[in-house]
Amino acid sequence: MTPARAAANVVAAEAAALKRDEVEEAAYARFSTARAAIEREQNGLKPTDTKEFLDWMAARRATDEAWGAWAVAMEAQADF
Q1: Rounded to an integer, what distance in angstroms lies between the CA atom of residue 43 and that of residue 37?
Q2: Whether the Cβ atoms of residue 73 and residue 3 lie closer than 8 Å to each other
Q3: Per-residue pLDDT tens over the stretch 25-69
């Protein structure tokens, strides 16, 4: 790998991680809306039992993985 390729990998990994951040924020907003509705309706449901919660958790995992890939790319770039 060349230094230029390593730098390009960092840029790409960061862009992907930032996109995952946006997806996670949107998922959290949907969960917040669902949680507020559950609290307002007091229907005995738990916010953590909703699809919105599961989607948010999946998005958080994907964000963590994306930032992990960025860290690996940064480490590889540091080798040059």
Answers
A1: 10
A2: no
A3: 999 999 999 999 999 999 899 999 999 999 999 999 999 999 999
User: What is the rounded distance in angstroms from the CA atom of residue 34 to the CA atom of residue 61?
Assistant: 20
Contact 45, 21 (CB under 8 A): no
Helices (H) and strands (E) in the chain, counts: 2, 0
Which domain range does residue 68 map to? 3-78
d(CA 39, CA 25): 21
pTM over 0.85: yes
**pLDDT for the residue 1:** 86
Count of domains observed in the chain: 1
Alpha carbon 4 to chain centroid, angstroms: 27
Going from the C-alpha of 9 to that of each of 25, 75, 79, the distances in angstroms are 24, 11, 13
